[in-house]
Amino acid sequence: xxxxxxxxxAAIKQYENVLEYPQGMPGKWKAYxxxxxxxxxxxxxxTLEISxxxxxxxxxxxxxxxxxxACGRGEYAVGLARLFPEQNFLGLDIKGNRIWKGASxxxxxxxxxxxxxRTQIEQxxxxxxxxxxxxxxxxxxxxxxxxxxAKKRLTHPxxxxxxxxxxxxxxxxxxxxxSPNLYLFTKTVIELYGLTLLTATDDVYGTAFLQSDKWDxxxxxxxxxxxxxxxxxxxxxxxxxxxxxxxxxxxxxxLKEMIAAFEVTETHDAKxxxxxxxxxx
Length: 281
Prior knowledge:
By secondary structure, this protein is α/β, with parallel strands linked by helices. The chain has helices at 3-12, 29-38, 75-83, 96-109, 157-164, 180-192, 207-210, 224-228, 252-259, 268-273; strands at 18-20, 65-69, 88-93, 114-118, 133-139, 167-177, 196-201, 237-242. The chain has an eight-stranded mixed sheet with strand order 1-4-3-2-5-6-8-7, with helices on both faces. Helix 4 links the parallel strand 3 (88-93) and strand 4. The two termini are 26 Å apart.
């Protein structure tokens, strides 16, 4: 591991706004963010109280908890926290050296309604109580273009069933991606399982969408990975939907057959796996 990574890993261990594989957190996020806002340090997770109600509708003192999954450097979580101080934001990612960036910015600017958890997305159910999360953002995740890796796509029904266990009824999922394949895959999932599609555009910065009543200032936040345009699509795709139906597992095989017909635009990493020379310029 490089020296810079080691320095970043050491730093986040001292940050109160970064938790690594925290234990016993379901129901405690309200109390955690209250201590973070008061700078009541060090924050002892064992002594945090479990909230009796996670819904802001039932408890006016509760701030909605919004997740950014696979947050990378955390630009979206931090950007959202700047825009909405009346909400709490939590970025999840396995890469501690990436989380360091967003956590450091939040500390420097004194933003106390955003924090980060280092963990695998597959383990997220361990950290949240039923209906504890109000919304989910998925920003520029790995599109997992190989059919054999389709179940690793963060909008695959396997993951949506996971989110359902802690997302509030009516909670919204946002996907922002430069991958046309992940965009079409997600639309297919929504249609096949009968979920409620709220917004979908294959060009979130296009004039038509910018001038529509669907435009929202949250969409203007840009991440480091967005700037890379790894998929070379030259367009940013966006979908907003609700996981408001049961997702029958017997439909997963139908989904697999449907996506097998998709034309896949390979990422550089996928090309390298096949031994194809990639021009990085």
